[in-house]
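Final report, Chapter 2: Outcomes

The project's central promise was a pipeline that accepts a single protein chain and returns its three-dimensional structure in a standardized token representation, suitable for archiving and comparison. That pipeline is now operational. To close this chapter, we reproduce one record exactly as it appears in the project archive, with the input sequence first and the structure output second.
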Amino acid sequence: MTTDLVISIASETIKIALLVAAPMLIVGLVVGVAVSVFQAVTQIQEMTLVFVPKILAVMLALIIAGPWMLNVLLTYTHNLFSNIPMYVK
């Protein structure tokens, strides 16, 4: 196992992790900003107001993007495990 192979596997792993986490992070960011703008406009300064919409939106994003995320992770894991004999050489 060469250094180039290890770096390649690590970079692919980081890319997959970012790709899988992106839908929830983006939805959480958008909802957080929208609630913050709503709080600023209405001058409601309740700290806990952000959490409920953000949790609901992230759960909805997880339900919608879940099958795609699972498919990406399964494909990556299958490719990683199927290439183990090539990695050992």
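Archive annotation: Residues 9 and 75 are 14 Å apart (CA to CA).
This record, like all others produced under the grant, will remain available to the consortium after the project formally closes.
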